[in-house]
Amino acid sequence: MLIDKDTVAKVAHLARLEVTEQETNELVGDMNKILGFMDKLNEVDTQNIEPLIYMTEEVNVLREDVVKQETTHEEALLNAPEQDGKHFMVAKVIEQKKV
After folding, report:
1. Which residues pair with 83 in a beta bridge?
2. Residue 6 DSSP SS3
3. Alpha-carbon distances of 85 from 15, 71, 92, rounded to whole Å
């Protein structure tokens, strides 16, 4: 699969990115290099190789999840840039699909 300008434009739209013509050309090259590398990896025989789950033998030490400070609803709203007394007010981020 080769990446073209249309594919970059579609990915940029999905990621909500604005890219210039020069950036689009650079991304076409970069994304094709990534896919080329993946093709090289597909040439390697991995039939008898166990999947690598962890990079090291280190064990993650987790602490007990303990509530140390509670924030009331009213205190939380004090930090809101916009609120209506009960809720945080945020910009709409859902775009309707154009058919």
Report:
1. 88
2. helix
3. 33, 16, 19
Q: Which of 39, 45, 15, 44 is nearest to 27 (CA)?
A: 15
What's the pLDDT tens digit per position in 83-97? 998 999 988 887 777
pLDDT digits 0-9 by tens, 11-52: 999 999 999 999 999 999 999 999 999 999 889 888 888 888
Alpha helices, DSSP H, located in the chain: 5-14, 21-42, 73-78
Q: Rounded to the nearest 5 degrees, what angle is found at the Cα of 66, between the Cα atoms of 64 and 72?
A: 160
Query: Can you tell me the distance from the alpha carbon of 69 to that of 94, in angstroms, rounded to the nearest whole number?
Result: 33
Q: How far apart, in Å, are the Cα atoms of 36 and each of 9, 12, 27, 90?
A: 20, 21, 14, 41
